[in-house]
Design goal:
Blueprint (H helix, E strand, L loop, with lengths): L1 H17 L5 H5 L14 E8 L2 E8 L4 E8 L1
Antiparallel strand pairs: 1-2, 2-3
Length: 73
């Protein structure tokens, strides 16, 4: 009977000692992963009239920059 109890206690001690211990840093430090989301640029034609002639030029609304030169339409 003593052998059975000592074996059970020994197994319980091994299970408790072998249980993984998680540090608080490992639980809360999930900032290592970087999430990147790709988005399509919003590009549209802009028009203006100079001396009765119509011109167009591409404008990127995402970066607020002009693309190319004015083109006579």
């Amino acid at each position: 009977m003593f052998k059975k109890i000592s074996i059970i206690l020994l197994l319980a001690a091994i299970l408790i000692a072998g249980a993984p211990i998680v540090k608080a840093d490992e639980q809360t430090n999930n900032t290592d992963a970087v999430t990147i989301t790709l988005r399509k640029s919003i590009i549209e034609w802009r028009f203006k009239t100079i001396d009765g002639k119509l011109y167009k030029r591409l404008y990127d609304y995402t970066t607020n920059t002009w693309i190319g030169d004015w083109i006579k339409v």
